[in-house]
Amino acid sequence: MSIILSIIIRVRMTYMKINYINFIEKTLNNASKMSNENFKQVKNVSVKTGDNNQVLTQTDLAVGDYIVKEIKNAFCHNIIDEEAGIIDNKSEYTWVVDPIDGTSNFANGLPTYGVMIGLLYKDQAIAGGIVLPSFKQIYVAQKGMGAFCNSQKISVSNESKLLSSLVAYGIDGHQEDPQITLDETKTLAQIILNIRNLRTTNSAFDMAQVASGKYGLFLNRTTKIWDNVALQPIIEEAGGTVTDFWGKPMDYSNPLTRIEENFTICAGATQLHKQVQKIINSN
Question: Is the pTM of this model over 0.85?
Fold first, then answer.
């Protein structure tokens, strides 16, 4: 092995051992304060072009600008921000930011929204954080370091039966192709018939409830990359499983080219994940 190659390998191994949790916690804490200052004072809400399900507020832009600035000051990594787009620094690391997840809730004065920051190393989600500003809760995780809420270790549900579990399912209407929604609701009906109760805020709030074991699962067939990267290491470090909706591994390869792509997700306690996959794949 050449001396140069040996140095490169050592540098990469050292970089992978950086504790990103402190940075994520600090950044989310400040982002939480910003969003709380504007909560229930939202003006000039706009609907994103081409998608009636997606709205935008000035708080989305302000929080996103702050997080992107903090990342730029701390790292020479790539960045994907829901509102700002991509920043390509030719890095193997990519931060993925959702300034306000659950903007429709936020804009309507509902407390069930959050701010999400995730980190990819190549195509692997290695660290992430979710803050629920209205609940003063910060969820963080990094590969091999565990998952925490306000510094307390958390774990997914230990319930063994899907029929005894609360399950969160986020669903958007597809006005451009109603058949998509009609077909999806058939699958959703089968899931509902096999769980205790359905819960949905279609936001980071639901994800956090899964990570802390209150809900058994979170599913969604209409998401973007910034909806999932932060969540995955939190769920996995809390002892759970994260796949796409149909049980296949999450694919974040070439992330900078995929900000327009639809992603799906099925995340939660492993034993419940297996049971819901049987239902999904039998329909």
Answer: yes
